[in-house]
Write a structure and sequence with these properties.
two-stranded antiparallel ribbon, Glutaredoxin, six-stranded mixed beta sheet, TlpA family protein disulfide reductase, about 15% strand, elongated, transmembrane, about 55% helix, alpha+beta
């Protein structure tokens, strides 16, 4: 699947992999500058990076305050992603200047930060997946096992979330997904992959979850058609039936609502 690196059974989103690689590059540059200038640049790079990460998270939470107000504890769910670039960059630069002052190391570390941020922006733009058509073959079913051809959804934007009852991140995000789906103007279909209706019904009953947005794909045909075995995977599809965005892994309420707003703007 586009935007994902597969290492055996492990799926890693390429944007996160790039961000981690560039973070390590920044720390490495800090160590190199420290050795060349006999300064504290290496230690300062670590401190600045830590402060920058916190600032990036705080910035993201502030930008999406209404979503986090509903589930405040998700502020700490860092594995879901959600960092704002520019608050993090600004905080990192400020810490470098404050701790190193007017030294050659300061200019070198700030310059390396600028280069790596530019690389992050360029890589994100270059690797952004292009819109592609949603496969038209798979036929889903509702909980009453009535068939729902995927083509019947064309003509309006909609969201598809691929999940399974055995998948821990799927189970964690499911109550939130059902809650957002219930109040969303854009249809959100929670498509179970590879399990029969009785297993899905038992899971929903045990967790006290509504089945209104649940769809069944007992053969996993949709996941196979789009080329992913990763779950959960959330697809944002425009009115022309094109996949405009893919989120691999657990998604936060803030990220889901932001993507829904973007999808609505694309089709308005």
């Amino acid at each position: 699947m586009e935007g994902v690196l597969q290492l055996g059974p492990l799926m890693i989103a390429t944007d996160r992999m790039i961000a981690v690689a560039l973070l390590w590059a920044f720390l490495g540059v800090g160590g190199f500058i420290a050795a060349r200038t006999e300064s504290r640049a290496g230690r300062v790079a670590w401190i600045a990076a830590a402060v920058g990460i916190v600032a990036a998270r705080v910035g993201y939470v502030a930008e999406n305050a209404p979503a986090f107000a509903i589930e405040p504890w998700t502020v700490l769910a860092l594995w879901q992603g959600g960092f704002s670039l520019w608050p993090g960059v600004l905080a990192t630069a400020v810490v470098i200047v404050m701790l190193l002052g007017r030294q050659r190391a300061t200019a070198g570390l700030v310059a390396s930060l600028a280069v790596l941020v530019s690389a992050q922006i360029a890589a994100t733009a270059l690797l952004a997946p292009q819109p592609r058509p949603l496969p038209s073959g798979p036929i889903l079913a509702d909980m009453a096992q009535r068939p729902i051809p995927i083509e019947s959804l064309r003509g309006q934007p909609f969201v598809v979330n691929l999940w399974a009852t055995w998948c821990p991140p799927c189970r964690r995000e499911m109550p939130m997904m059902i809650d957002v789906a219930a109040g969303s103007d854009i249809p959100i279909l929670l498509v179970n992959q590879g399990e029969d209706v009785s297993r899905v019904r038992d899971y929903l009953a045990r967790e006290g979850l509504a089945d209104t947005s649940i769809r069944l794909d007992p053969l996993g045909a949709l996941g196979e058609a789009i080329g992913t075995r990763a779950m959960p995977t959330t697809l944002f599809i425009d009115a022309d039936g094109r996949i405009r965005r893919t989120h691999t892994g657990e998604i936060s309420r803030a990220a889901l609502l932001a993507a829904l707003r973007d999808l609505e703007r694309m089709t308005s």
